[in-house]
């Protein structure tokens, strides 16, 4: 099974209706093992009306809906024949899946999925600071804050240990 994200084109303004219809069709046609998630990419937009701040949801890609699915003839048929769907995005008859980094960027923008950072550091390890005020200092990793993408390290300055919080991108391993 190859699970990929595909983009479907819809009638403008019908994105949420297509999402609802497709989810109902997936359930009624027992396609849960082939069609997994349906998303209408949205982002928060701050509107200021009459001096009041209001947060509104705005479609990032009007006229498009994302579908995570295993592309087979059956799953293609279910999606393609959903009311409001005008077709898949791709060349000719073959839909082209989105690349992983494209999907991650969209999901991150929506706040649906956070970036998963692989942590190559361990507590007690020495690292070199590569940017910021402590650039070129050697530090000892004290704590790994993977969910924030940060490390708490100890930098030795003037004979004293100074705790500093740094992004993963601000340090490198010392060989």
UniProtKB/TrEMBL annotation:
Ranges for the NusG-like N-terminal domain?
A: 2-110
Name the InterPro entries on file: KOW, NGN, NGN-like_dom, NGN_dom_sf, NusG-like, Rib_uL2_dom2, Transcrpt_antiterm_NusG, Transcrpt_antiterm_NusG_bac_CS
Work out whether the entry's keyword set contains Kinase.
Answer: no
Has UniProt tagged this entry with the keyword Transcription regulation?
yes
Coiled-coil segments on the chain, per record: none
Q: Where is the KOW domain?
A: 120-147
UniProt entry keywords in alphabetical sequence: Transcription, Transcription antitermination, Transcription regulation, Transcription termination
Q: Which GO terms describe its cellular component?
A: cytosol
The record's section on CDD domains has: KOW_NusG, NGN_Bact_1
**Pfam families, per database record:** KOW, NusG
Which GO biological process entries does UniProt record here?
DNA-templated transcription elongation; DNA-templated transcription termination; regulation of DNA-templated transcription elongation; transcription antitermination
Which family is it part of?
A: Belongs to the NusG family.
Its annotated function is as follows: Participates in transcription elongation, termination and antitermination.
Protein name, as recorded:
Transcription termination/antitermination protein NusG
Q: Which organism is it from?
A: Desulfitobacterium dichloroeliminans (strain LMG P-21439 / DCA1)
Task: Give the gene that encodes this protein.
Answer: nusG
């Amino acid at each position: 099974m190859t699970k990929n994200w595909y983009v479907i084109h819809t009638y403008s303004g019908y994105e949420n209706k297509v999402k609802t219809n497709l989810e109902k069709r997936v359930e009624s046609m027992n396609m849960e093992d082939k069609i997994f998630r349906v998303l209408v990419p949205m982002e928060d937009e701050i509107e200021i009306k009459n001096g009041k701040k209001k947060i509104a949801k705005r479609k990032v890609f009007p006229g498009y809906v994302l579908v995570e699915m295993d592309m087979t003839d059956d799953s293609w048929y279910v999606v393609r024949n959903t009311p409001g769907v005008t077709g898949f995005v791709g060349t000719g008859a073959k839909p082209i899946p989105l690349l992983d980094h494209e999907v991650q960027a969209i999901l991150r923008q929506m706040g649906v999925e956070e970036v998963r950072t692989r942590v190559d550091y361990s507590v007690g390890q020495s690292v070199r600071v590569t940017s910021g005020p402590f650039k070129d200092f050697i530090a000892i990793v004290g704590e790994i804050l993977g969910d924030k993408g940060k490390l708490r390290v100890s930098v030795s300055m003037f004979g004293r240990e100074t705790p500093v919080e740094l992004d993963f991108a601000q340090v490198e391993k010392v060989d």
